[in-house]
Amino acid sequence: xxxxxxxxxxxxxxxxxxxxxxxxxxxxxxxxxxxxxxxxxxxxxxxxxxxxxxxxxxxxxxxxxxxxxxxxxxxxxxxxxxxxxxxxxxxxxxxxxxxxxxxxxxxxxxxxxxxxxxxxxxxxxxxxxxxxxxxxxxxxxxxxxxxxxxxxxxxxxxxxxxxxxxxxxxxxxxxxxxxxxxxxxx
Length: 186
What we know:
By secondary structure, this protein is an alpha+beta fold.
């Protein structure tokens, strides 16, 4: 009797990821990365941001191609709305990080994904950023992520994928744990 094994392909090279993890276990100093973004003010609340390189594995690394982002505020804030707000980019980062993790974990666990869709929302009271009420924080009051995942897996297996992705997500960690941030003038 011949049994065919389905090939799982979610587009993640888990073998390379596991090999990298093993290599970094032998040289933990190479695991120290510094991510970079370079921002130039355009006008008003509009800025242009470039992401081109980062430091990792002991040296500067370059992305295959640089990426640029425009950041602005919407017209309801008396701005020109040339791009998403900075807080929307935070939601983009969270969605991208969690979703990448879901794909990687699914690949590692032999689960074929058919579709993954997330709705990410963050609520805030803008009285804080407008300086109207010093008791209102400037950031999100809460962030909600809801996934719709179609996969060759049970609901429990899908929930486990999401939980493992959340556990390993750098952006989730950034949002849920204090991070030392220094802002200075050069």
